[in-house]
Amino acid sequence: MGEPGEDRKLAERYVPHVRFDRAEPFDIQGVGYTVYTAGPASGAAVQSVSSKLRIQMEPGESVIEYAFYYDFDIQHLYDLEHVFVKIDSEGRIVGVLGSFHGKFLNNLLEGETEWEGTHAILYVQPGKHAFMPAPHYFRLFPDRDKCCGEYAGQDGLLAAPMFEGRIFTEEAFDRQAEHYIKKKYAFVPAWEFSEEYPRLSKAEDLLMPWKELEELIVRRITEWKRRILKEKSS
Question: How crowded is the C-beta side of 218, counted as CA atoms within 13 Å?
Fold first, then answer.
């Protein structure tokens, strides 16, 4: 990893630009970044700080990990999605991986991936926030509409293992969260994607080091639990 200022500049230069469904109800709250660099004479394999991915690099390559945080996925409270941008020693992008329901899929497809300068344009699954290089790939997901309506909220609060002891839940709260999400946020996707998402700040403006985002997540989920419990008791 480089100096903090250098890592920030690198993260700004390559952060993906995202496209949202026009009916999307959720905003990105922060984008945590981490930069990994292999030495010039040997490659490297390192564990991602915020996901299960083990990152592979060839000599001279760097990988920028972007963790996109939302307070909600349409099916649960707490959502963290990832993009890994790999660059070679000349600063050329040689890989883009995007998270998709527990997997990491190639988002660098010749003739399909769109660009704004050094920023790959990635499409966000409505409500679920998985990444694809083009919107037609979301047709592969059979419940892409039902998850935004009929199945909204069904997973309650997603308590990720890395937040053990800081974020936790129980069945009673999960059912309260399900009711809250379905009542407040269930929607019908338009399946029309826009760069003019009305409430979204630019990804560059949401960047912060991963440790900052990690602390922000704990604070925001704690506050959301309080709000949901308060609404139930009122």
Answer: 12
The residue among 99, 59, 66, 68 whose CA lies nearest residue 85 is 66
Task: Give the total residue count for the chain.
Answer: 234
132: enclosing H helix or E strand? strand 131-132
Could you give the angle at the alpha carbon of 103 between the alpha carbons of 99 and 107, nearest 5°? Answer: 50
At residue 12, the pLDDT reads 96
Contacts of 192 (CB under 8 A, 6+ apart): 21, 22
Q: Cα–Cα distance between 69 and 14 in angstroms, integer?
A: 18
Residue 162 to residue 152: CA distance in whole angstroms: 24
Q: How far apart are CA 80 and CA 202, in angstroms?
A: 18
pLDDT confidence band for 231 (50 / 70 / 90): confident
CA distance 105 to 118: 20
State pLDDT tens for residues 136-185.
999 999 999 999 999 999 999 999 999 999 999 999 999 999 999 999 99
Distance CA 85, CA 16 (A): 8
Q: What is the mean pLDDT of residues 38-60?
A: 90
Which residues have CB under 8 Å from 226's CB, separation 6+? none
